[in-house]
Backbone:
């Protein structure tokens, strides 16, 4: 954790081993929002309205408006409903949720409790990436703290509102970051995505209405309630409210998480991350996690970091993982590694992804190892076409988009590889 | 209803329906592999992608809900490009082994590849190879061919009720397998072969024996359980090569039990009897038909002359056709005897004179799926009626209650709401509890005849829960299973169940044990002067001996023991309630005529005097009336093997030789016409009502150990006994002597030890097994098996000794 | 089959889910079983299946789907090195190469003394700390330069 600004990572002192604890969190106005809601019996619709006003959008990658998602939950439904936090952070380049849970776990707990209250939910699960075990243990401890303090469990703060929250860990499957795969996994099955519709709001965990949000999304909620949606919106840009944590990795001097207002210029973010390692030239950047299209450095340097600006530039903000590549990077090699990842992590359920990701990887691999043919570039695009938009979940798109973007922006490099059977860098 | 447009045609789809449903209604073909109307939607093959107006990407027809005003095109450029793209993906790793693949000619992938595939592959990398699996004796695998549609997996979970197959691994490495090389043991497993759209799962018995296009297809009806599943029998060179389901939504849907599917191997058995044989001086000799029939006619005439007509008895299997059963009883009655029966495993005939029709299911088979509550009494249901169990499983999924009163606790692979496992002797008392509870709940009087029986009984919570379940959830039904029908207190059980059904206002039925259990009554194959229904009604049991009396098992002795027997389509050592006693009686008889499709079983050599080779169901035309009373006629699909002849013809000639009137039939249709002379409305002849039968004393505690003897699934009739592949399944395992742990301890026996079980003067050596769900002092030993044929009654006292 | 301590942990996990959804605890149950046994033998999976009332094949599906379960015996210490793109840009491959050289094994191999197993991992969600590696699934080691790898090996070799 490098830079602490604004909202999610505000006021934290990472060198203090107890700064994550409830006491410290409360000193930072923690649980004030929940207390206020319960004391004043603020109507759920008001809370959802405030979240809508904030223009908070899903921080997991899809950027869906959070308030709108919350309003999809059936209000009159009798029986169990579930709230699920997607902390299965495995999108290459992304490591923000780990920091939130590690350093500010109660912001997530409070955010979920508020969400549960707003949607009339009594049970929640936080699904944590299997590889970050110490973070899972931290969350277990934090939940125990909150429960002991009467901030979770039955009859919270004597309000009559009850919310049980549990942690559930993954054990090594990228696909469980997809929300319906995550639900399957929570049910004790393979993490294979479900087709949609039905959406989780009508058929979610155990077949019950369920809302799933990302860690960062929930963690933003207490601040929104404390300070008002309007103020959150103003920090960012219209339709792109608040701050966003960007996980900057790759060829920079200070890789790490940087929480900045939405709309911060990329150049500023790069500067915060200490600039390019060794002073080298920025060649390319994947601005939203490995699944998003790569953009050449010059385009990035003219782009602001918010959903709409990055989309205009030809990629997506995604999870906010900014992977920086300098001019020593071989783009064929980079694509080969990414394609291997999607091939390795495909769940195997639907045909195009199961068969197509392996095909993509093998063709890129053959180009990288000097056995490529010039018609392979068209083949790659065509196979990517047959995958994208035809799979059950977005992993197919995630495998296809990097291939097309890499070929689009760095075609010369691929041709060089094919013709010279070696790398140009 | 939702109105959508597909390819410019309007269609109304029921609310909740999909684009695929609409296309099906319109007869528009959309290619698919994973979709199946009876299974949950998986949407994983992506072959059914279609274009939907305003949708940015193609959508799978199978999982896309119809939305009012939706416009779909199944053949637009986008749709076709998507479908071709998926076909290419499916083919890149599929082996090009069609020439040696059994699925060739009926392969969905092959068929669709013609329409949607390219002639050459753009994929130049090595293809995936998947290690083969051994799923047991019925399903042959070639998993490299698998396209992971998961139909087989979903079938297990959703229809068979047991997840034996799963998808292990992920991505390209995903493969379908069982846990640690175990076999697939479901009694419905063969359906996975039908469901597999490629050649990954094919029939092991059929493997490499013919190409599909060499086979001719004939319709038939299954001769095994009472369901009467509809079959397609496939023939090559006058030999039955394979049996497949013929879809009939009202009976077997699109499924078959493994028994119905794989029993055909028994038709081609080495043990088929192909020539008439006569035993002379203790030696079996082949002979011609004329000699054999003369021998039989003379033998019967001699018995009639020397001992009177009542010394002649006929026993027939209820797996025989209506025509065969009718002619057999006509022959026997023509000789002046009333001794004819098909109820070979029944032991309690006290209710006979109270029967008011042929016992039957009491409802349509299809209505089982709609039940909201059912009580099944005395049944090893999954093994006796696999597809009825399947229908109940689907009903339970829709919220139905399943209640059981049984001497065993076999897993029905579905949720059971209330279950009572009691010793056989306590079953009637348990029913009395339910009756009392039902009367209390309905505030109704218990019929006067039962008042005394029930008054002293105290009602348990479970009995009350069962009664409430039947009363509160409609439609509801009560069924008597095979164990109940074989039970020594069947009449009491029947009567009590009938009263429960009356008070709780449920349907009441008897699960037909065999393909023609209903028809056998209607054909008159029951003792008495005439048949129950169609050909002139009369009281069952009057002026004739039942199976139990004929074979000397009954406590009620008969005046004139049978000295001459005609046995049709049965093997008494397996097909009778008390094989030990049956063998004794037959050994003492002067004449035993065996009309059988099979020779062998050394024991039969001892008692029979003449063997007449009859044609099994595939070699004769005939009729079965299934458990719901449905009349299903069928034709022979191959010519009789060797010198075997349809039994109806044999009986006709015998009638002629014995100079009996009315045996001048030219065709089986003429026989059928005579049976249905009084009209073909079978429904008027069906009734489970017993008139005024007085329930005997119930609840008396039996001394000593009691046997529970069920018929194993693959021992129920002569054909299935010889189906070699079925005989290698888990269900065909050699019988065990199962008992609760407490009893094992008391006997000082460990599970797995060989022990001696004894009944009467017969004994068998069997491995002991522990089953703590069995009632105290009960020993479960299967009957109808060579290893237990030496034993006595299926229920009643049994002794167990350590070796 | 599993120790009382492991069963207690599994029982605790089961309490997190509705009473009729014991299967939800299968992932943690397998992880707990693996912590005790080192890997998931068929008998162990079968035991977990019975314990949670699941079909054995359903447990096997889960165990083979998630790649942190060991379906074969592994060394006392299993290293999983991330070589995904963000880590590769910051020395992930160098860390892997260094480990291979020091241990004398490749990926998916175990040292002859049975001490170390090396695995290639996918994104662990810690790209800012690259190179990263996991020891026995649960201990994450960050910024793994060759020197730090040497220190780690020394610590574990004691």
Residues:
């Amino acid at each position: 954790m490098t830079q602490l600004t604004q909202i999610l990572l505000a006021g934290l002192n990472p060198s203090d081993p107890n700064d994550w604890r409830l006491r410290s969190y409360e000193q930072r106005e923690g649980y004030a929002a929940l207390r206020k809601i319960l004391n004043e019996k603020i109507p759920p619709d008001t809370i959802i309205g405030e979240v809508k006003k904030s223009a908070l959008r899903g921080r997991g990658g899809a950027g869906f408006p959070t308030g709108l998602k919350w309003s999809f939950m059936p209000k009159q439904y009798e029986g169990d409903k579930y709230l699920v936090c997607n902390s299965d952070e495995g999108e290459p380049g992304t490591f923000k949720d780990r920091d939130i849970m590690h350093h500010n776990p109660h912001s997530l707990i409070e955010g979920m409790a508020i969400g549960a209250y707003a949607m009339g939910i009594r049970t929640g699960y936080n699904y944590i990436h299997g590889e970050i075990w110490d973070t899972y243990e931290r969350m277990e401890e934090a939940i125990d703290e909150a429960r002991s303090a009467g901030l979770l469990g039955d009859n919270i703060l004597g309000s009559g509102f009850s919310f049980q929250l549990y942690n559930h860990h993954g054990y090594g499957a990228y696909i469980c970051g997809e929300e319906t795969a995550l639900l399957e996994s929570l049910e004790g099955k393979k993490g294979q995505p479900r087709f949609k519709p039905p959406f989780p709001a009508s058929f979610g965990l155990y077949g019950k209405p369920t809302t799933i949000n990302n860690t960062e999304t929930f963690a933003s909620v207490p601040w929104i309630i404390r300070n008002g949606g309007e103020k959150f919106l103003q920090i960012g840009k219209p339709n792109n409210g608040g701050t966003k944590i960007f996980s900057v990795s790759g060829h920079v001097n200070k890789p790490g998480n940087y929480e900045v207002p939405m709309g911060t210029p990329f150049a500023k973010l790069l500067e915060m991350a200490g600039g390019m390692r060794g002073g080298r030239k920025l060649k390319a950047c994947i601005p939203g996690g490995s699944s998003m299209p790569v953009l050449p450095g010059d385009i990035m340097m003219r782009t602001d970091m918010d959903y709409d600006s990055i989309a205009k530039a030809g990629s997506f903000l995604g999870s906010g993982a900014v992977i920086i590549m300098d001019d020593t990077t071989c783009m064929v090699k980079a694509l080969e590694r990414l394609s291997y990842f999607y091939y390795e992590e495909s769940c195997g359920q639907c045909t195009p992804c199961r068969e197509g990701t392996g095909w993509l990887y093998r063709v890129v691999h053959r180009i990288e190892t000097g056995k490529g043919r010039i018609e392979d570039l068209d083949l790659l695009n065509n196979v990517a076409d047959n995958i994208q938009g035809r799979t059950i979940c977005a992993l197919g798109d995630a495998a296809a988009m990097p291939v097309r973007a890499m070929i689009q922006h760095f075609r010369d490099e691929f041709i060089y590889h094919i013709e010279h059977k070696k790398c140009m860098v | 209803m939702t109105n959508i447009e597909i390819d410019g045609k309007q269609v109304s789809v029921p609310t909740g329906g999909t684009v695929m449903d609409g296309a099906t209604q319109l007869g528009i073909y959309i290619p698919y592999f994973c979709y199946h109307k009876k299974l949950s939607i998986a949407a994983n093959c992506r072959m059914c992608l279609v274009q939907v107006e305003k949708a940015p990407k193609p959508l799978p027809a199978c999982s896309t809900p119809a939305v009012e005003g939706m416009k779909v095109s199944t053949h637009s450029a986008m749709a076709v490009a998507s479908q071709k793209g998926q076909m290419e993906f499916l083919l890149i790793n599929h082996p090009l082994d069609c020439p040696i693949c059994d699925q060739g000619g009926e392969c969905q992938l092959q068929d669709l590849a013609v329409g949607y595939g390219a002639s050459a592959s753009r994929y130049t990398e090595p293809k995936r190879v998947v290690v083969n699996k051994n799923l047991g004796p019925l399903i042959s695998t070639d998993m490299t061919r698998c396209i992971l549609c998961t139909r087989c997996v979903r079938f297990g979970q959703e229809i068979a009720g047991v997840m034996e197959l799963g998808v292990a691994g992920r991505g390209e490495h995903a493969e379908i397998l069982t846990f640690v090389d175990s076999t697939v043991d479901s009694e419905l497993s063969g359906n996975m072969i039908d469901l597999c759209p490629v050649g990954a799962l094919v029939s092991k018995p059929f493997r490499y024996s013919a190409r599909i296009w060499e086979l001719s297809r004939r319709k038939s009806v299954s001769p095994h359980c009472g369901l009467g599943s509809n079959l397609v029998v496939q023939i090559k060179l006058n030999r039955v090569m394979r049996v497949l389901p013929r879809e009939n939504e009202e009976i077997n849907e699109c499924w078959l039990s493994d028994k119905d599917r794989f029993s055909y191997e028994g038709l081609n058995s080495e043990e088929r009897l192909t020539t008439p044989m006569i035993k002379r001086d203790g030696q079996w000799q082949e002979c011609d038909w004329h000699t054999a029939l003369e021998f039989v006619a003379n033998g019967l005439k001699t018995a009639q002359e020397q001992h009177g007509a009542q010394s002649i008895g006929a026993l027939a299997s209820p797996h025989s056709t209506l025509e065969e059963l009718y002619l057999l009883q006509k022959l026997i009655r023509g000789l002046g005897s009333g001794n004819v029966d098909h109820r070979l495993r029944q032991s309690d005939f006290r209710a006979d004179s109270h029967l008011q029709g042929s016992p039957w299911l009491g409802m349509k088979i299809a209505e089982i799926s709609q039940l909201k509550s059912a009580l099944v009494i005395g049944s090893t249901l999954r093994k006796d009626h696999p597809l009825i169990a399947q229908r109940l499983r689907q009903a339970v999924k829709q919220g139905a209650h399943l209640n059981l009163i049984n001497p065993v606790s076999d897993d029905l692979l579905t949720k059971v709401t209330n279950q009572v496992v009691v010793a056989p002797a306590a079953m009637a008392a348990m029913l009395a509890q339910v009756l009392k509870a039902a009367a209390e709940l309905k505030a109704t009087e218990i019929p006067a005849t039962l008042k005394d029986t029930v008054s002293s009984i105290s009602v348990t919570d479970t009995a009350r829960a069962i009664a409430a379940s039947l009363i509160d959830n409609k439609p509801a039904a009560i069924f008597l299973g095979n164990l109940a029908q074989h039970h020594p207190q069947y009449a009491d059980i029947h009567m009590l169940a009938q009263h429960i059904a009356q008070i709780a206002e449920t349907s009441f039925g008897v699960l037909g044990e065999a393909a023609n259990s209903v028809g056998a009554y209607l054909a008159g194959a029951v003792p008495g002067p005439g048949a129950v229904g169609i050909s002139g009604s009369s009281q069952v049991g009057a002026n004739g001996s039942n199976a139990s009396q004929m074979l000397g098992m009954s406590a009620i002795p008969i005046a004139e023991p049978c000295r001459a027997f005609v046995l049709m389509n049965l093997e008494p050592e397996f097909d009778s309630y008390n094989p030990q006693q049956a063998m004794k009686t037959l050994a003492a008889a002067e004449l035993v005529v065996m009309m059988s499709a099979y020779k062998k079983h050394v024991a039969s050599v001892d008692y029979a005097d003449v063997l007449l080779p009859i044609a099994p169901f595939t070699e004769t035309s005939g009729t079965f009336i299934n458990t719901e009373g449905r009349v299903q006629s069928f034709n022979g699909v191959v010519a009789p093997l060797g010198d075997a002849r349809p039994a109806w013809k044999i009986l006709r000639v015998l009638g002629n030789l014995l100079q009996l009137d009315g045996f001048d039939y030219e065709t089986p249709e003429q026989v059928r016409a005579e049976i249905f002379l009084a009209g073909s409305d079978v429904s008027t002849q069906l009734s489970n009502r017993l008139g005024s039968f007085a329930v005997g004393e119930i609840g008396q505690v039996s001394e000593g150990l009691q046997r529970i003897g069920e018929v194993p699934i693959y021992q129920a009739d002569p054909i299935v006994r010889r189906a070699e592949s079925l005989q290698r399944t888990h269900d065909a395992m050699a019988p065990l002597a199962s008992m609760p742990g407490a009893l094992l301890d008391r006997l000082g026996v460990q599970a797995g030890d060989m022990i001696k079980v004894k009944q009467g003067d017969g004994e068998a050596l069997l491995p002991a097994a522990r089953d703590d769900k069995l009632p105290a002092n009960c020993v479960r030993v299967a009957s109808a098996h060579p290893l237990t044929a030496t034993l006595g009654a299926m229920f009643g006292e049994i002794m167990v000794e350590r070796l | 089959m599993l120790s009382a301590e492991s069963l207690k942990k599994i029982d605790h996990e089961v309490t997190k889910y509705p009473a009729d959804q014991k299967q939800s605890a299968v992932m943690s149950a397998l992880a707990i079983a693996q912590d005790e046994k080192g890997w998931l033998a068929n008998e162990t999976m079968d035991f977990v299946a019975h314990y949670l009332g699941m079909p054995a094949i359903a447990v096997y599906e889960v165990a083979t789907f998630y790649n942190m379960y060991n379906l074969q015996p592994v060394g006392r210490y299993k290293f999983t090195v991330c070589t995904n793109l963000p880590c590769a840009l910051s020395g992930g491959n160098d860390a892997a190469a260094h480990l291979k050289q020091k241990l004398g094994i490749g990926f998916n191999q175990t040292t002859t003394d049975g001490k170390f197993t090396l695995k290639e991992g996918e994104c662990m969600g810690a790209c800012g700390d690259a190179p990263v590696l996991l020891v026995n699934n649960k201990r994450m080691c960050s910024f793994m330069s060759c020197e730090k790898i040497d220190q780690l090996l020394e610590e574990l070799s004691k």
